[in-house]
Design brief:
Blueprint lengths: L1 H5 L39 H18 L1 H11 L1 H6 L4 H24 L14 H12 L3 H25 L4 H25 L1
Length: 194
């Protein structure tokens, strides 16, 4: 992606001065996602699409044969292979679908404000997604809730930084404390169950 936004022959906007950022030209209005219509909010229909994707994923993983097969592979690859499941294809297919959904999410990010493809426009999202997945512990409902909480923290942190001069690292500190508290609660619950 770095090459794409740094080369003028690809997607970089025309360089007019030394201050021209390495990013694409703004998307044409027809390629931008429509707003949800909430007053004062830049939220687009990407929010609705994300909720729909989460519901479809939940249905596929909990109510279909492919979901059962994926769960079997996730619990024990050797046992799934002994049952005759195509483990390699299931792993490849699930990763391909996950990559495709991540690509759609990235396209949704580019199609929202500021409507440009910029270098490092998704920095930190992979780490945040791993933390959300680990904290959710296999619950798709928890994934949605924790992801929303992290998104609100990040968005609120930007607003606090601009309005009140709060350091940008304060959001990361709050997220880290939340992670420690949740992990500690899980550890204490397991220790109490013994």
């Amino acid at each position: 992606m770095t090459l794409v936004v740094h080369e003028e022959g690809l997607l970089r906007q025309p360089v007019t001065s030394a201050d021209t950022l390495p990013q694409s030209p703004p998307l044409v209005p027809g390629a931008r996602l429509p707003l949800l219509g909430l007053q004062g909010s830049p939220a687009t229909i990407a929010v609705v699409l994300a909720v729909i994707a989460a519901v479809v994923a939940a249905i596929v993983l909990r109510r279909t044969a492919i979901g059962t097969r994926l769960a079997a592979v996730g619990l024990s690859e050797p046992a799934a292979a002994r049952l005759g499941l195509p483990v390699a294809w299931l792993k490849f297919g699930s990763l391909a679908v996950a990559g495709g959904l991540a690509g759609i999410a990235g396209a949704g990010l580019v199609a929202t404000v500021p409507f440009v493809l910029a270098e490092h426009f998704t920095s930190g999202y992979g780490f945040a997604a791993l933390v959300v997945g680990l904290l959710a512990r296999g619950s798709l409902t928890a994934v949605c809730g924790i992801a929303l909480a992290f998104g609100l923290l990040a968005s609120g942190g930007i607003d606090l930084q601009l309005a009140a001069g709060v350091p940008a690292s304060s959001v990361q500190i709050v997220q880290s404390v939340l992670i420690i508290l949740i992990a500690g609660a899980v550890i204490f619950r397991r220790a109490g169950a013994r």
